[in-house]
Design goal:
- With 526 residues, the protein is of the alpha+beta class.
- The chain has 2 domains: 7-405, Beta-lactamase (3-Layer(aba) Sandwich), CATH 3.40.710; 429-524, Lipocalin, CATH 2.40.128.
- It has 14 helices and 22 strands.
- The strands form 5 sheets. Strands 2-1-14-13-12-11-10-9 form an 8-stranded antiparallel beta sheet, sandwiched between helices.
- Strand 18 and strand 19 (474-479) form a beta hairpin.
- It starts with 6 loop residues before the first helix and ends with a strand.
């Protein structure tokens, strides 16, 4: 799940005026360029949706819905849009602010009386705005294993378990992307509207905009016109190897407010048009939220770090500033203020861009996890609408991607700097078996079968695998579902030789932050 206090300064920089007459017509070589991008990064299917204020929107489609099948992606094919869902959640909250049912500074505990964080001060002071801007004190992706991969927990269960996740920093002291507080934001919507988050999104956004394809659920019916998720996977690591279709899409409905929407290119032009209208639907002349709230959602709140260096050939894309707003990232591209947000779920990555001063917005949808595809397309389109010459983004991103994979392979192949044979384990294999519990995740079971160990995350049905001994008391969890990141599992012993705790760490340096194994601290159930 992908995402990216000088608010007054950022309002001035981002701007909301109308400037720069441009055409929504895409680059004349867009189809050829898209073909080269997809071939370079082996992307099966892609959609580019473009909107310009006052002109007809455009949807371009490329490739196939699933490798090995002939069905083409079309403008009504559904793609998982991941964390770009967050802007839909913030938009509904903006409508509730317009209606006087809450404010951005309303205390969450006043709406959700049982709401608690690990830190009592954060519990008492957390506002609706705080839920949306990634300054809670939680670590990067903390608690994502509560919903990712698919778990049996409810949204209410997830929000309840926030109280057991230790913060990485103090409240409001810095930026760290999280998903769980958007789940809490969905609970706020449900408490105020007296309807589910799904119904609120449908009634307040999808129906008025006639977004008939879009689903608020990632559990789509068989036969739906949907793109299929694809990933690279091998015995080496997830993210390395040939491109292949997943056995099935991941269902994330218990974290829907953070990233469960599936949408088509045709529908997303309507959403982009609403953004360019600052809350006014230009086709029906209906206002969904006020221009004041549009400005609020686009105003940066939490400063984000900017890269000190970029890979060779990517220097022009280096931003001067970045700040997280309410479901959007306020930033700049080659000096031009933009609003952006990426989204990712297993097998899909997406990017939404709004150019406020140019009155142009676009979305890029793909059914693979190739960030090089997104960045190549995004930068080419931005250059076009700014009237700037493009460097060879594809070549630069391809080289950078290959370098990362090479480095990851080398790291995964590293051996201990010793000629000594692998030592351990300290105990007989059967001694590691048992049931262990983490305060926020819950239980895992480890079972022995002869000389083998099997591990099972009890709230996550697909997280079942074999523990392969590595060295000393560390094992590698090799999951049956190869779409899940393998993890090192390390047991720590008491002086008496019994197991004191079990900790984990992702094996691959390419692992997505939502596999937050490092936040787990399992102890034996006695």
């Amino acid at each position: 799940m992908v995402g990216f206090t000088a608010s007054r300064w950022l309002v001035a920089v981002v701007g909301f005026g109308f400037a720069g007459a441009v055409s929504a017509a895409p680059p004349p070589d867009l189809d050829r360029y898209a073909g080269r991008v997809m071939q370079t990064f082996e992307t099966p299917g892609m959609v580019v949706a473009i909107a310009e204020r006052g002109k007809p929107s455009i949807v371009r489609t490329y490739g196939v819905k699933r490798l090995g099948e002939s069905a083409k992606v079309d403008e009504h094919s559904l793609f998982a849009i991941g964390s770009t869902t967050k802007a839909f959640t913030s938009a509904v909250l903006a409508m509730l602010v317009d209606e006087g049912k809450l404010t951005w500074e309303t205390k969450v505990s006043d709406v959700l009386p049982g709401f608690k964080m690990y830190d009592p001060y954060a519990s008492a002071e957390m506002t609706v705005r705080d839920l949306l801007v990634h300054r809670s004190g939680l670590g990067l992706g903390a608690g994502d294993l509560l919903f990712f991969p698919t778990t049996t927990l409810s949204s209410a269960d997830i929000v309840h378990r926030l109280r057991y996740i230790k913060p990485a920093t103090s409240f409001r002291s810095g930026y760290a992307y999280d998903n769980l507080l958007y789940v809490a934001a969905g609970q706020v919507i449900e408490a105020v509207t007296k309807m589910s988050w799904h119904d609120a999104i449908r009634q307040r956004i999808l129906t008025p905009l006639q977004m008939k394809d879009t689903s608020t659920s990632s559990a789509l019916k068989d036969g739906t016109n949907r793109a299929w998720p694809h990933i690279r996977t091998s015995e080496v690591a997830r993210g390395i190897g040939p491109m292949a279709a997943l056995d099935k899409p991941m269902t994330l409905d218990n974290s829907a407010a953070a990233g469960a929407i599936n949408a088509s290119g045709a529908d997303l032009t309507r959403w982009l048009e609403l953004q360019l209208g600052r809350g006014l639907d230009p086709r029906t002349n209906t206002r969904l939220f006020s221009e004041t709230q549009s400005k609020e959602m686009w105003t940066g709140v939490t400063l984000m770090p900017t890269p000190t260096t970029l890979p060779k050939g990517m220097e022009l894309a280096k931003p001067n500033f970045r700040a997280y707003a309410l479901g959007w990232v306020a930033s700049d591209y080659r000096g031009e203020p933009i609003l952006a947000h990426a989204g990712g779920v297993p097998g899909f990555v997406t990017m939404f861009i709004v150019m406020p001063q140019r009155n142009v917005a676009f979305a890029i949808l793909t059914n693979s996890e190739e960030m090089g595809t997104l960045a190549s397309m995004q930068n080419r389109l931005l250059d076009h609408y700014l009237g700037l010459k493009s460097p060879d983004w594809i070549a630069a991103l391809d080289a950078s991607n290959k370098e990362k994979i090479t480095q990851a392979r080398e790291a995964l192949a590293e051996k201990p700097a010793t000629n000594e044979p692998v030592k351990g384990p300290s105990l007989a294999i059967a001694k590691y078996a048992g049931r262990y519990r983490d305060a926020w995740y819950g239980p895992v079971s480890i079972e022995s079968a002869g000389e083998a160990l099997r591990i099972r995350f009890e709230n996550t049905p697909t997280m079942i695998g074999t523990l392969e001994h590595v060295r000393y008391d560390t094992f590698r969890a090799r999951w049956e579902d190869r779409g899940i990141e393998d993890a090192y599992v390390t047991f720590a012993l008491t002086p008496e030789g019994s197991i004191e705790r079990l900790t984990m760490k992702a094996v691959s340096p390419l692992a997505d932050f939502s596999f937050d194994y490092q936040d787990l601290w399992f102890t034996p159930e006695r």
